[in-house]
Request: fold
Amino acid sequence: MFKTVQLFCFGLLLFTLFHACKTPKPVVSNENLLERLLAANPQAFDHVLKNRDSLRVQIVYTRIDRDKRNRPHFTDYHFNVNKGLYFYPASTAKMPVAFLALEKMHRLGLSAGSTMITEKGYAGQTLVYNDPTSKDGRPTVEQYVKKLFVVSDNDANNRLYEFLGQEYINRELHKKGYGDVQILHRLGVSMPDDQQRNTNPVSFRDSGNKVIYSQANVNSSYVYQQRSDFVGRGYMQGDVLMQTPMNFSQKNRIQLTDLHQMLRSVLFPESVPAKQRFDLGENDYRFLYQCMSQLPRETTYPAYDVKEQYDSYVKFFMYGTQKEKQIPTTLRLFNKVGWAYGFLTDVAYIVDFEKNIEFMLSATIYCNEDGILNDDKYDYEKIGLPFLEQLGQTIYQHEVQRERKHQPDLSMFKVKYDQ
Reply:
């Protein structure tokens, strides 16, 4: 027990020292490294290279080099990154929602483990008084964040969306410098716009069931940005094929570079401008590092069926197609994925504790050869997952082979899991 406490205190010391040291700003390299790495493996990437625009492929890779004081220095490499090339972020939008929910709890002075009660205050809303997936049956922000990352749970995201509110989410992200972001709706449920704008009454209770914070139903007056985001050559509306591109102009939008930067801001807060950081405590950071890298088989509450929620269920880089393979525990992917409407995206920080390497990688690809949306005929297995798996392996091998002046100390990213 004493040794465990010593190790924990040492980890907190490293964490504090790391966040106290100001890190140099990232550099965007003009070197066409990603193009060269993809071209060197034509069997895996020739189709992508020739069809990069129709596949809407975008990649951001960040090389991390440590100095002798273990401070990280970042170099970003881009492939086909284009703010005008829309992609639907799908469940990657859950990542900033989780960050903002923990930030709001921190600012309110509330524990993320406080009981969270969700009421009904408008048409289409549903209430939550208990959560059978938690250890003691209580719904909490902590449990929602955990499920959101470990298996990309839609309901968990929606409860946090309701706690935050549509206008609050967008205002806070814009204040942090992510001006192109629009998070406008819940996920996995179809609702008219007025119901997306209205978010449930929420209260938090202490251990004696006393209300310690409450907020009423909120009606967002957020003014949507004028957009012209269309995808495909047609879409299904019920059983009818609409032979026109599908309009995504009132659906969620986040640039890949912004998702990449948001993840970096939580992993390496001092590497981004102060206004871009989320207002989190040390416990919040440690909790996020656990949730973002934890596998379903390492999770006790909920207890997942590993045949359904296998290791690569939400770990697309390096292992996307390998449903039977266990990911080595010495390799950790701190990430958030998304898949919907033919778009497949992964945003990750990848660490190999055995080989002592680290890097960041984000990518998105459109997997819909027939161009028809809402027909449930997407090419995730044929195009998307093989691409993300091969891309992750390619960058990983590049990292294994490249020389480093200083070996990184990655102990701050070693966290304890449920199992």
User: Anything to note?
Assistant: The CA atoms of residues 114 and 410 lie 31 Å apart.
